[in-house]
Design goal:
Length: about 350
């Protein structure tokens, strides 16, 4: 995998500066051992030029090499081979220039040291380049993985939302169909309410964050439709603290919970039923409690928590990576659903 040009240019400049530094160091070492100025300049310049060329070749190989720990051995072997070829070529070039006997003797005595030095320089360059490219690839893979996870989460959130809407829509259309024959005025009113509700639903994303006050307004549209269906049997009691109204929660989260409460509270009874919702802000959380009456003697036993509750719990898990944000309990003759929305995570997400 190729690296960004800016990063490659920075690394190339850093590598060239490193070689220039070693050229100056080598020049002063050669002068210290008695070589002439011209011999020291030529030796240092040619040596570092060969090392720089070998380093460029090994870095080019690293860029297009498959970066596995097994293949790192091939990088080291390639570095040693390049260092050997550079060492042989350098010796040929240095002996080509006119030189006195002392320089040739010195050149012969340090030939092994020169090879070791060149090999270390090229190997270090190859290994360093391999590690940097490997780290970069891992970072890119992590970014791709996170992006894929985000897309999967959004797709699942969208799928959950699409599964919720038809259920409510079919019930509402059936009620409108029944009302059309008996009360056309009420049927038209219900159509208008359903249109307003669906318009607000379409405008919102599954993972969009909204104020509780806005969510309650949208929920009221849904309840107005349900009150047309159930008439006087459905009574709602909604309370929210002032502090809670300004807190945020995922959009369209409350409607399936209230729908579940209506299903469990009204479907097995013929009298008036009160569905209550209470919201409050406590210790960095938005708490919402939904309560519906539950009579174990008259209610038909049901297994599971219902699709509405499962979908909300799954949405919360996908958005906050937690499975403890929705709880249900039966207390006396009431079925209570509680959700808590952490506000710190919402600030981070938003």
């Amino acid at each position: 995998m190729q690296q960004p040009k800016s990063q490659l240019h920075f690394f190339a400049l850093l590598y060239m500066g490193w070689c220039l530094l070693w050229a100056f160091i080598q020049f002063f070492i050669l002068r210290y051992y008695g070589l002439t100025f011209s011999q020291s300049v030529r030796d240092a310049a040619l040596t570092q030029s060969v090392i720089m060329l070998d380093g460029y070749v090994i870095l080019t190989i690293v860029r297009y090499f498959r970066h596995t720990w097994k293949n790192s051995a091939y990088i080291i072997a390639s570095s040693l081979m390049l260092a050997y070829l550079g060492w042989v070529g350098l010796n040929e070039v240095l002996t080509y220039f006119p030189a006195d006997e002392n320089y040739l003797t010195w050149l012969k005595n340090v030939t092994v040291i020169r090879f070791v030095f060149m090999a270390l320089m090229v190997v270090i360059t190859g290994v360093q380049g391999w590690v940097l490219v490997y780290i970069r690839e891992q970072q890119q893979n992590e970014l791709l993985l996170k992006e894929n996870e985000r897309m999967v989460r959004e797709a699942e959130l969208s799928d959950l939302r699409q599964q919720l809407q038809p259920h409510f829509l079919f019930n509402s259309l059936n009620s409108i169909s029944a009302l059309a024959a008996t009360d056309s005025t009420l049927a038209r009113k219900m159509i208008e309410q359903l249109s307003d509700f669906l318009r607000g639903t379409v405008k919102k994303n599954a993972n969009q964050l909204v104020l509780l006050s806005e969510e309650l307004q949208h929920l009221q549209l849904y309840l107005d439709i349900e009150k047309v269906r159930f008439g006087h049997r459905l009574v709602t009691n909604i309370k929210a603290d002032e502090a809670a109204l300004s807190l945020r929660l995922p959009s369209l989260l409350l409607q399936p919970l209230v729908e579940n409460a209506i299903k469990f509270g009204l479907y097995d009874t013929i009298g008036e039923v009160i569905i209550s919702l209470e919201a409050k802000a406590t210790q960095g959380y938005l708490f919402v409690e939904i309560k519906n009456p539950f009579d174990a003697e008259t209610s038909i036993p049901k297994t599971g928590t219902g699709f509405g509750l499962r979908s909300v719990k799954r949405r919360l898990s996908l958005l906050f990576y937690r499975n403890d944000l929705l709880t249900t309990e039966q207390k006396e003759n009431f079925y209570i659903t509680t959700i808590k929305i952490p506000q710190k995570e919402l600030v981070t997400e938003n």
